[in-house]
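Hi R.,

As promised, here are both runs. First protein below:
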Amino acid sequence: MSMRNTFPVLIAMSLLSTTALARRCEINGVDVNPDNGSTTAGKTGVLKCYRDDGTLWREQELRDGEHLGLDRTVRDDGSISERQINANGNTQGLAREFYPGGKLKQEGKYENGSAVGLSKSYHPDGRVASLRFTPKAGAQPAASIEYNRDGSLHDLRCAAQSQMPEDRTLCGYGKNASIELHDAGGRLSEKRSYRDGQAIAAETFDREGRRSESFERDAQRNVTKRYFDSGEPASESVVVDGFEIASSEWYMNGKLKTRTSREAVLERPKSTLEQFRDTGVLQVREERVGQRRTHDERFDESGKRIEEFLYDADGRPTTHRKFDANGAVVLEEAFFPDGSRKLIKGDAQIAR
């Protein structure tokens, strides 16, 4: 549950349980029944409700019979939540929650039920658990920092500019920063580098501590990689200005499997796809404009070209050639739109 929603939801639940289970309520020393509005109409003061054992359960401020101001609940386990409510019944101003025993659990400011500014939460031992900064009510947090119970960094989200003192060094404002993230068990899960709030490099690790993914980014270029358990590269993608201009895949034996290059244009980009055998030798090369094939080539196990196809503007084959070991054409045939073909060079048996 996000901090933005924690206080309103928890308090609403506590109020429902309080009115249902409380045995006695009073205001200014006079017994009242919160379920009967006539007993609180026009009254000003603090409504107090008690459990059967006499312990305080709830305090709620009334102003001329309206619920405004303090709203405080003491739960059965001793934890406490408190807030200020406005005429709409929503949290307004500071809201806090405390662990049993009185240590602060979380606090933040609200505008008509929406978090705004800096919100903090704490682990039971008093260490900071999270910091979140929301620039305006109703918006998503612009920056957040999360810590594990041992004090190690768990997650980090940075804005374009520093939002709180604690993010200045971690997010690399004015000076590059390198951080490590850990899961709740203390395992290293990720390494990141930041420059002025932007992640410029990162590596993620699996539960065995093996690198699984990585990326590097500069002003225009973004390179993302995946890795096999062995540490060898499995795939790579290169994106420039939002266009993937190159991608590659590898076999588990370390040999290149596929390689693709594309133009960085939106309409009908030219692209080349190469497929390799697990020996690393080129097997197929395909050229396209958009989704339309323009040229296909096939290669033997030594990497020599043995066959090719050419295509027209509609993607239909127009020419088919086969080659001998020296690269000489041993077959050439033409294709026509009606599906017929014409042998130009070579033996018809070879064409089949």
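And here is the second one, sequence first, then its structure tokens:
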Amino acid sequence: MSTATALIAADNVRRAQQAASLSDAPLRAKQAGKTSPIPLPEGAENVEFDGADGKLAFKSSSSVKALAGFYRSALKPLGWKAQPSVINNPNMAAMQFSRGGKEISITIMQMGPQVNVSADGSGLEIANAQSSSADDQPAAKVAPLEAEPDSALPVPKEHSMSSIAAGKLPGSEAPFRRELEASIPADLASVLAFYRSELGKLGWKEAAERAVTKPDRVQLAFTTPDGPAALNLGRKNSETTVTLAQKIPAAAAKGEVLPKPGQARLLLGNLGDAEAAITINKQTVKIAAGAGGPHMKGPTLDLPPGKYKYAVKVAGHPARNNEIDVGADDTWGVMIAPDGDTLSLHVY
């Protein structure tokens, strides 16, 4: 067994052990703080409640399933109506409740050997309330992440790194694709809650059936007014990493870069003064000097999704070998430098 395989196996065992340590036993309500408007389950720890802002957070050794079941059963007799669940998985659940014009959102996520529960909404707001713990002792306020006001795609103000790229061709003003990459010094559950809120404000609709949620990784797909989008969250160096990408099919179709359904498309360009040739997937395509620039369209090549090795030959230079990984419904630009080196750009 290789070192990498052994590490993966050990990590899988660790995660299974952590999940097994969580209790699926049905939960009963315990006595909450005097100002808490909804019940707390027995075993809730590190409880923080802010009635002024309508926020509640705590940790538990019970499973996601047990905690979700508790709130569905505990809030119904109080007149709260559950909305259809967007996410309901063994390691994460997101629930919405409404009553008399007020709302409560509850996110339950397994984070290693514990489960984090966070709730917010107008249904948790109490006039003139003070932040308190379950024992009515002063507790730190649970501050939500705030959005950077001038960002083209949502990103919290509290970020240590962020960049936005727009996929487009030389000379084109309209982007075919937008992508945000960021690193946030906050836990994954908080960042996920931020994006669910901010993307919802933009009219983005989550495809619940395509959601992948893990303690250290989340993948969500969306439909947006402009086209499909994807959100990927991970953990690195004690921060949450963010990749948010949105495609704009109307602009891609107008720019003639839209791939065939289920296929990937390569847009080939040549920055040199001599003809170049690229060989990929047993096909050789010649690219005229200057092709793929603002004044001359370059050739295109449609491929099944996958990882490909390719070779580039320019007269007077040795052949260059490289590889590219393309997904279904993606378009990539491959620009060839005068010496045969290549630059790959995710256009759509």
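A quick note on the second one: Residues 3-20 form the longest helix (18 residues). Let me know what you think.

Best,
J.
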